[in-house]
Specification:
- The chain is α/β, with parallel strands linked by helices.
- Helix content is 25%, strand content 26%.
- It folds into 2 domains: 196 residues, Rossmann fold, CATH 3.40.50.1170; 116 residues, Rossmann fold, CATH 3.40.50.40.
- The strands form 5 sheets. An 8-stranded mixed sheet has the order 4-1-5-7-8-9-12-13, with helices on both faces. Strands 15-16-17-18 form a 4-stranded parallel sheet, with helices on both faces. A two-stranded antiparallel ribbon has the order 2-3.
- A hairpin with a 2-residue loop joins β12 and β13.
- The chain starts with a strand and ends in a 9-residue tail after the last helix.
- Bound molecules: aspartic acid (ASP).
- The site of aspartic acid has 10 residues, from loops.
Length: 329
């Protein structure tokens, strides 16, 4: 019989009303008991790691979760992580970089409505996630509302509906209906390399979203960061007339800051080579191209890459090398 480890971290799924609104306070054994009643063909153990709203999830918590999976890797056949939905996509992407060469599933789930409420999505999500965590596949996945999404491709796009997550710029891995798993793509089998933990981390990363009228001087205050992600317009447009941002960006790169350009558009990624307003920035060979990676993956990947090296060429190579389905280069 398969053995699953459920790691609980808090979130709405474990929240109950308190004096100041919903907060995680549910005894995690409630979730475990629910799964045990459902006669899954597996043994489930519970590890209550955190009890936080995922708003408070920090990169150091990603490391803790990854270390726990690594410590228990040989003991279990699959891992189910309950997590708040608000930052679940970031955690899923971070774990995709930290947990290398997985040959077992690491599945994140949560809910939009607390487990103890009458009309809740928690039970379906827990059950689906447990089913997927029993599959013979390797990788990090988000299971939510009957969808299985690659850990680097999930995005929370709805704040209230049960259908909170979408797979952005990548096909769904599978759909789950009445506990039947219907794969949409064929996952590659486990490679030769053994599983390993790789939790390099540098949190000195800043994210900036452009808007018409943004002041170039702002960028001169950003050189304390080691990495900057710019959510540019459309295919990678960065203003170069009027309030010209290009010299400021050049200056940051010359100071050794890793600059990644992405887009504010949800779908299809950037192509800096298309317009003059993109090419002006892309002509600097150290600018990092993110193509169709999602911001939720770019941030942890940049923290991970900068945790290994400050060399801009090496960071660029790591960022532009697809990992765990994060990019269609
Ligand atoms: N604020 C909650 C959290 O992210 C929302 C949720 O879990 O749905 O922890």
């Amino acid at each position: 019989m398969k053995k699953l480890l459920m790691i609980t971290t808090g979130g709405t799924i474990a929240s109950q009303p308190g004096h100041q609104g919903l907060a995680p306070s549910l005894d995690p054994t409630e979730l475990e008991k629910y799964l045990q009643q459902e006669n899954l063909q597996c043994m489930i153990s519970n590890y209550p790691l955190l009890s936080i709203d995922s708003t408070n999830m920090q990169p150091e918590h990603w490391v803790k979760i990854a270390e726990l999976v690594s410590q228990q890797y040989d003991e279990y056949d699959g891992f189910l992580i309950t997590h708040g939905t608000d930052t679940m996509a970031f955690t899923a992407a971070a774990l995709s970089y930290f947990l290398r060469n997985l040959s077992k599933p690491v599945v994140l789930t949560g809910s939009q409505v607390p487990f103890n409420y009458q009309k809740t999505d928690a039970k379906r999500n827990l059950l689906d996630a447990a089913h997927f965590a029993m599959e013979n596949v390797g990788g990090v996945f988000v299971v939510f509302n009957g969808k299985v999404i690659a850990g680097t491709r999930a995005m929370k796009i709805r704040t209230k509906s049960f259908d909170a997550f979408e797979s952005v710029n990548f096909p769904y891995i599978a759909f789950i209906n009445d506990q039947v798993i219907d794969y949409q793509i064929e996952l590659p089998g486990a490679g030769e390399s053994p599983f390993c933990l790789d939790t390099a981390l540098c949190t000195e990363v800043f994210l900036i979203k452009l808007y018409p009228g943004i002041r170039p001087e702002l960028f001169s205050h950003l050189s304390m960061y080691q990495g900057i992600v710019i959510e540019s317009f459309g295919n990678g447009g960065i203003p170069s007339h009027g309030r010209d941002l290009v010299p400021q960006i050049e200056s940051l790169v010359s100071k050794g800051v890793a600059v990644v350009v992405t887009t504010q558009c949800l779908q299809e990624g950037e192509d800096l080579s298309l317009y003059e307003v993109g090419r002006r920035v892309a002509q600097n060979p150290n600018i990092i191209i993110s193509k169709d990676m999602n911001t939720e993956a770019i941030i942890p990947k940049l923290m991970w890459a900068l945790g290994k090296t400050a060399d801009l060429g090496e960071v660029k190579t790591m960022m532009e090398t697809p990992l765990a389905f994060d990019c269609s280069f």
